[in-house]
Description:
By secondary structure, this protein is α/β, with parallel strands linked by helices. The chain folds into two domains: about 1-110 and about 255-330 and about 370-375, FAD/NAD(P)-binding domain (3-Layer(bba) Sandwich), CATH 3.50.50; about 115-250, FAD/NAD(P)-binding domain (3-Layer(bba) Sandwich), CATH 3.50.50. It is built from eleven helices and 22 strands. The protein has helices at about 10-20, 25-30, 50-55, 65-70, 125, 135-145, 165-180, 200-210, 255-260, 300-315, 360-375, and strands at about 1-5, 35, 40-45, 65, 75, 85-90, 95, 100-105, 105-110, 115, 150-155, 185-190, 215, 220-225, 230-235, 240, 245-250, 250-255, 280-285, 330-335, 340-345, 350-355. The strands form seven sheets. The chain has a five-stranded parallel sheet, with helices on one face. A four-stranded parallel sheet has the order 13-12-11-17. A three-stranded antiparallel sheet has the order 6-7-8. Helix 1 (about 10-20) runs parallel beside helix 10. The two termini are about 25 Å apart. About 45% of the residues are buried.
Amino acid sequence: MRILVVGGGAAGTIVANKLARALSDKIDRGEAEVVVLDKSEYHYYQPGYLFVALGEEEPEHFVRKEKELLDERVKFYYGDQGEVIKIMANENKVQTKDGKVWDYDYVVVALGSYPDPNGIPGYKEGAYFFYTLEDSIKLRDAINNFKGGKVVVSVTSLPYKCPVAQYEILFALHDRFKKEGIKAEFEYLFPIKGTHQHPMVSPVGEAWMKEKGIKITSPFTLTKVDPENRIIYSKEGIEVKYDLFISIAPHKSADVIRNSGLAAMWIPTDPYTLKSKSYKNMYVLGDTTDIPNVAKAGSVAEYQAAIVAKNIISDINKTNNYYRYDGAAYCFIMHSMDKAGYLYMTYTKPPTLSLPSKYAKWLKLAYNEMYWTMSARAEI
C-alpha cells in the first residue's frame, strides 16, 4: 500500500510525518510506504519572509533541507524525481518529470499557492513583494534605502495566502519609520470594500489604520503600474502615486492541477473530510483547496493535516471513525515592530482578535523556532 504526498511544504510535511508514525508497524513490515514528492530539496518557512523584509532575521534562518524534517520512515524524492507533472486520478497514478509513473492507493495533494505578478502591466517592475525569499531580500534593501515619501501597501486580488500579511508589513513599517524619524505617508489599497475579506475583521483593521493615520482606498482593483512615474491605476479610475510600493500579487495554484484536469484553479474539496469531491482516495490540503472563507495559511494546513492523517488511517484500518475539520485558523498579527496580536476562528466561531502586546510578538517569534522543532515534525 502506498500513500503519495504531492508537495513538501508545511501541509505535506506534517501529514507525511503523522502518517509515518501511525503506520510505523506496517512500514517496518513492508506493508505500507509513505512517499513525499517535491521539486525542491529544501523546505521554506514562508511566514518568516516578513522578518527578512523587515531586517529582523537572515534569509537562511527560514530554510532547511526537507529530508531533515521528515520521519526516517518517509521516502522523499526531489528534483526531476520529485517534480510531479501530471496527476492521473482516474488511474491512481502520478508522473514525475523524470518520466517515472507512480501508482498509489491514496494521494494527498498539498501543492500550495503561488504569487503570479506577471499578468498586470508594469506591476512586476514597479512593486516590491515579500512572498518569496528572493523578493523579501529585495524589499529589505528597498526599506533600508528609503529616505521618506509615500508608502503604498496593496492587495491585488482574492484569495491570497496569509490574509493578514498586508496588515503586518503596513503596521510594522509605519512604526519603524516613525521611530527612525523618517517622514512617511501611508496609503492602503484593497480590492473590495473595507480592509479585509472577512466582514468581522475588516472594521477592526480599518479602526487600526485610522488610529495610525493611514489612508484607506477601497475598492481598488489594480490594473496597471507606471514604474517610471510611480503611479498605480485601478479599474475604478483611481490613480495613486507612490515612492515605495509593496504589494501582494495575484495568486494561482500549481500548474500541474490545471494540466491534470483537476481544476481550473483550486481543487474542489469537502470542507469537513478534506476529500476531493471527485476522487474518494484523494485528499486535498492547505492552499490547494477551494474551501471558501478558510484562510490560505500555515495554521490551517497544520490543522487540516491532522484530520487527513486520521481519516486515511481510519480508512486503512476500516474503523469507520471519521474526523471532521472545523475550519480552525490561527494567525499572529504584528501591530508594530514590537507588538502583535492574534486571530482565531472556525466555521462556527467568529474571529477572536486579541489586543496587541509585546508578549504576543514574543510568541510569534518563538513559534518561528518551534515550527522547525515541533510543527513541521508533527510533534504537536
